[in-house]
Structures are given as structure tokens and as C-alpha cells.
User: Which sequence fits this backbone?
């Protein structure tokens, strides 16, 4: 591709040719400099604006036609939609065309958020803006999270009149796993309500830590708690305890969970401090906001440039005793 064949540079020629001037923009900086070097444009009295040198008009048009033969069609469509001859204008035009094409598609009643974005937006990770959402108004857009659980005693799963013991499913599958789509279709937790819900950040700690049989253990690995929230919606009165790493991300997850459930208890057993010299990781802490119930020795970790991993303490015999204490 030639220099002028790149869209931002070619659009600088379009803007210069059709409006007689071109503004300085970060993504067109090279085009700006080249126009001055070639003598096709000169600085105007306005800061950040170049004016077309009419002597160079034929050269500009010939170069543009060679680099982008369809430029006049795009320019006409930009004009019809009252969009500027700029990279932003072209993006809006392309977005308009995608939405128009998507509105003609026969979309299914349910789509994953990434698939939906790929169908109606620029790419699968693109934001779904108001117009994209309008195209998708009849589509159930899913995030398709999963919740991995260690079922508490007496817990059951129900849907459409069918009730199944959660521990029976665990024996078959190794864990109790519920998907976002299952929840949307009516799957719910039932049976005996657990004494508490223990959410755990890391997979190893989730799988291996001891827990009372009447406590539901849930893997919550980070910020994507949407499906967990939906699953536990009917357990607003059940205490929720979180156990995570003592590092910046682990502290931030506690704050994140408390924005959903302000009463979330933070499980930080005192004996954990005993592991700091042997198991501590020498890492810096950023400036951050600490939860108000942060133990002083945890705050001190930031002064020592030390992080503590939760896996280090799950095999300690004091773990279960400390957890029982936190449930009182």
C-alpha cells in the first residue's frame, strides 16, 4: 500500500480537495507534514489549518484517484449523511453501513455478546452503542459466564419442576457448574439454604481449602461476577464471605464485591501473617484505597512491598478453625 493509500492519509487529500483546507490531527500527522513538503498546501492564518494551493489541485486529485479509486463514492455518501471528510466521519459511515446490513439479518433470539458485536459492530470486542443495541433489541445478548461451586449439604438445583440434588450432580461431574444461559432459562438453587457462601479468588484455593459441609463454596476469580450475582440473587439473607489474595487485585475484588453486597465479610485469618517471611512475594503496591476493616498488619504489607498468596494457608490446620470463627 502506498503512503496515500492509507485511509487517514487519503482522507486528508479528500478534505483538502473538497473543502480547500485540512485540519491537523494526530492520526493524520504524517499527511500534514507531507502536504507541506510537497508544496500542495500552505499554512493558513488559523492555527492547525492548511490551505490547498490551487496550483496543486490536479496533482492532489490524480494522487487521490490512483491511491483510492472509490474515493468519490465515499465522499458523496459522507456528504449525504452530513458527516465530515475525516477518519471519524469515515468510521461513522462504516458503522452506519454495518448497522444497516445487520438490520437485514435474521438474528437468532439469543447471541453471545461477542458474537452479537461481531454481527452488528466493528469487531467482536467492540462496544455495543445505542444504535447497535437498537438492532439487537429482540435478541437476548448473553455474557455466558459460568459459576463453579462446591455444593453445600442438602443443596439442590431446580428447573421446570425438576429438582436434582446438587451433590449427586457433583459426584457425576466433579463440580456443580451453572451457566448464565441456564440461569436465564430458569435454573435456580433450591433445597437446604447454606449457612454461608464462601467466595474464593484462586482456583487452587477454591478446590483444596477445607470448608464446613453446610457452606457453599463458589469460585470468583475476578471482576466478572455477573453470573454469580444472578445465581445468588435468592440468597440475600445468607452471609457472604470472601477469601482472596492479599495483593492489589485481591483487595480490589473485595471492594468490587461490596459494591454489590456491602455486608460482604472479608476473611483474613490472623495466622496468615505467620507466612509473610517464608511465603511472601516481594512486590510493590500501588497507591490505593483500603477497605475500612483492613487489619493493620495487612496495610503494613504495602510498606514492606510484600504480597501474600491465599494458597499458602489453605492446608494449615488453623484455617478451618478461623473460618468457623468468621461464621459466628
Assistant:
Amino acid at each position: 500500500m502506498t503512503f496515500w493509500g492509507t485511509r487517514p492519509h487519503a482522507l486528508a487529500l479528500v478534505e483538502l480537495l473538497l473543502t480547500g483546507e485540512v485540519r491537523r490531527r494526530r492520526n493524520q500527522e504524517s499527511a500534514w507534514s507531507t502536504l507541506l513538503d510537497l508544496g500542495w498546501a500552505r499554512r493558513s492564518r488559523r492555527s492547525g489549518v492548511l490551505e490547498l494551493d490551487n496550483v496543486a489541485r490536479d496533482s492532489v486529485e490524480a494522487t487521490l484517484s490512483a491511491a483510492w479509486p472509490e474515493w468519490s463514492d465515499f465522499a458523496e455518501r459522507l456528504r449525504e449523511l452530513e458527516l465530515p471528510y475525516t477518519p471519524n466521519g469515515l468510521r461513522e459511515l462504516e458503522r452506519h453501513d454495518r448497522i444497516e446490513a445487520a438490520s437485514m439479518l435474521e438474528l437468532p433470539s439469543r447471541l453471545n455478546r461477542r458474537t452479537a458485536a461481531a454481527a452488528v459492530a466493528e469487531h467482536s470486542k467492540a462496544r455495543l452503542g445505542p444504535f447497535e443495541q437498537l438492532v439487537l433489541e429482540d435478541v437476548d445478548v448473553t455474557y455466558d459466564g459460568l459459576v463453579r461451586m462446591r455444593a453445600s449439604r442438602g443443596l439442590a438445583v431446580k428447573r421446570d419442576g425438576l429438582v436434582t440434588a446438587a451433590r449427586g450432580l457433583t459426584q457425576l461431574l466433579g463440580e456443580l457448574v451453572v451457566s448464565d444461559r441456564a440461569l436465564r432459562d430458569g435454573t435456580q438453587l433450591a433445597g437446604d439454604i447454606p449457612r454461608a457462601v464462601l467466595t474464593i479468588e484462586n482456583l487452587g484455593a477454591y478446590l483444596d481449602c477445607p470448608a464446613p459441609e453446610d457452606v457453599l463454596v463458589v469460585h470468583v476469580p475476578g471482576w466478572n461476577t455477573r453470573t454469580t450475582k444472578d445465581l445468588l440473587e435468592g440468597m440475600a439473607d445468607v452471609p457472604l464471605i470472601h477469601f482472596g489474595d492479599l495483593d492489589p487485585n485481591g483487595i480490589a475484588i473485595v471492594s468490587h464485591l461490596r459494591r454489590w453486597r456491602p455486608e460482604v465479610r472479608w476473611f483474613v485469618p490472623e495466622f496468615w501473617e505467620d507466612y509473610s517471611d517464608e511465603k511472601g512475594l516481594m512486590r510493590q503496591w500501588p497507591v490505593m484505597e483500603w477497605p475500612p476493616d483492613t487489619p493493620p498488619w495487612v496495610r503494613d504489607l504495602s510498606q514492606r512491598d510484600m504480597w501474600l498468596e491465599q494458597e499458602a494457608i489453605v492446608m494449615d490446620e488453623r484455617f478451618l478453625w478461623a473460618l468457623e470463627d468468621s461464621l459466628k
Observations:
- The chain has a mean pLDDT of 92.
